[in-house]
Amino acid sequence: xxxxxxxxxxxxxxxxxxxxxxxxxxxxxxxxxxxxxxxxxxxxxxxxxxxxxxxxxxxxxxxxxxxxxxxxxxxxxxxxxxxxxxxxxxxxxxxxxxxxxxxxxxxxxxxxxxxxxxxxxxxxxxxxxxxxxxxxxxxxxxxxxxxxxxxxxxxxxxxxxxxxxxxxxxxxxxxxxxxxxxxxxxxxxxxxxxxxxxxxxxxxxxxxxxxxxxxxxxxxxxxxxxxxxxxxxxxxxxxxxxxxxxxxxxxxxxxxxxxxxxxxxxxxxxxxxxxxxxxxxxxxxxxxxxxxxxxxxxxxxxxxxxxxxxxxxxxxxxxxxxxxxxxxxxxxxxx
Length: 335
Ligand SMILES: *Cc1c(COP(=O)(O)O)cnc(C)c1O
Prior knowledge:
Blueprint: H1 5-15, E1 24-26, H2 28-34, E2 38-42, H3 53-61, E3 70-73, H4 77-89, E4 93-97, H5 103-110, E5 115-118, H6 123-137, E6 140-141, H7 148-164, E7 170-174, H8 179-191, E8 196-202, H9 207-214, H10 241-248, E9 251-255, H11 257-269, H12 281-287, E10 298-302, H13 309-317, E11 321-323, E12 326-328
Parallel strand pairs: 2-10, 3-4, 3-6, 4-5, 7-8, 7-10, 8-9
Antiparallel strand pairs: 1-2, 11-12
Pyridoxal-5'-phosphate (PLP) is lined by residues 50, 52, 77, 144-145, 174-181, 229-230, 276, 278-279, 303-304.
C-alpha cells in the first residue's frame, strides 16, 4: 500500500479551517550558521500546540457515521489531536499513554474532554490498552503514525513548505514513528524529486533508526529524553510508515540530549520561540555540524510547544535536568 500526492491534497481539503497553514519563517541566526536560508515551519502555532492535529483530524473525519468513539496510544500530542477532533465530531475519545508522558500534555488532553488511561511505562503498554478498548468497547483505533489518513494529514506540511519555497534543497524532519517524515517526504518528492529529506531523532531509543538498520521493524528500550515526543516504538506490525521512510528518507541523523538542550536555547534566545525538545532536532543536527553543507535553502518543522514550563525554565537558566537515571548537565546560553 502506497501513498500519493492526491491523498495529501484530499487531506488538505478535509482539514481546511481546522488545522490551517502555519507561518514558514526564516531564522536569521540559523541561516548564518548554515550559510543558506534556514526556515522554520511553525507547527507550534496549531490550535493544539502541535502538528498532530492535521493527521488526527483527517483520520477522525474519515471514520464512518455511527462510530462508537475513538481511542489511540500517544506520547501526548497525537492524543491531543484526536481529542480535539473527536470533540468537534461529538465522539467519545479514550487516550492511552504511558507514565513517561509529561503532565502538561496530559492536562491539555483532559481539558478537551477526553478520557485518559495511564498504562505502564512505555508506548507499547499504552498501545495494548488501546487495542483492548477496540475489542472490549468497539472504539476505533487511530495509530499515531501507521495510518494512511494520519500520514496524508501530516503530509500537508510538506505541501505548504514546497509551495511557499519551491527552491528548498533540504528538509530536516523530526522522526519518531515516521508518520510526519513519510507524509512530508511523499509530498515534497512528488513536487521536487531532487529534494533531500533527512529524518532527525535522538540517540537514545531511536526505534525507526534501529529498524532501518535491521531492515525490519525492531523494538528498542524506551528511555526518558528531552525529546519526549520522539519516544516509542514503530510497531512490529508496521505496514506503512516503515516502508515509506525506508524508501524516501535520504538519511537519518541522531542527536544527543546535550545537543537538544543547546538547540532549545538557540531557538528561544535567538528566535524567541518556546518549543519542545522534539522540535529542535533539525537545529541541533545543524549546530552540531552533523549534516553536509546544504547547496540551497533548508526547512525544518517546529513540531510542537506542549512542554513542561518548569523544565523549560530550568533548561533556559542553565540548570541540570534529571531524566530518569541520567542527568543532562546544565549550560548557560552563550557560555
Ligand atoms: C509525534 C511528534 C513527532 C514525530 O512524529 P512521527 O510521525 O511520530 O515521526 C515530532 N515532534 C512532535 C512534537 C511530535 O508530537
